[in-house]
Amino acid sequence: MNNEQYKGQNILVVFPHPDDEAFAAAGTLARYIEGGAHVTYACLTLGEMGRNMGIPPFANRVTLPAIRKQELLDSVAAIGIQDLRMLGFHDKMVEFEDQQLLDKTLQALLNEIQPKLVITFYPGYSVHPDHDATGRAVIRVISALPAAQRPVVHCVAFSNDHEQAIGKANIIVDVTEVIHKKMSSIQAHRSQFQAEELVGKQELGNQQLLARFGKEPFWIYPLA
Fold this sequence. Notes:
The protein is of the alpha/beta class. It has 7 helices and 7 strands; from the N terminus they run E-H-E-H-E-H-E-H-E-H-E-H-H-E. Strands 3-2-1-4-5-7-6 form a 7-stranded mixed beta sheet, sandwiched between helices. Strand 1, helix 1 and strand 2 form a beta-alpha-beta unit. The longest helix has 16 residues.
């Protein structure tokens, strides 16, 4: 991948939860930004219904929204994202949101930003109902645009059966050169860590880090 392939271009990222960007695309976004791209991250919710409260627990149901908001800000800063939009939809309820309102919100973002590339979840193959609902909404809104106005859509997929259904990833981004930014983004989401090696009790070695986090796969969505 050429870092500069989106130089001077706008990229729109649409995920539902704080920390989605960290695990799914932090390295790729850092590389694009280093190459001169401008990234807007639209995060639909604050993940306020998340079950994880830190290890050991330091959050509770009342404090979690504010904590996750700050974690998101820290993650975005670690990646270098220039524009964060917190859209205020309800965690674990994206599939039940007013479709017209959700679509109108996404359409307004597309109109404003005019992205060359959109990154989101692959609907049906991203495990969490909020992930799938977000991907469906993004694809629905972009598909309604005239063909000449549609940005390219790169999707994240990781359900157990995704490769059997949609094939292997079209794009695999090597993020080893920016692995420090990706790990800083992941570590910003302290309340969500469940693996001990990510909270400092057992440090992963460089080779383990690269094997686990050094590549980010994406599928080009086949817009009709």
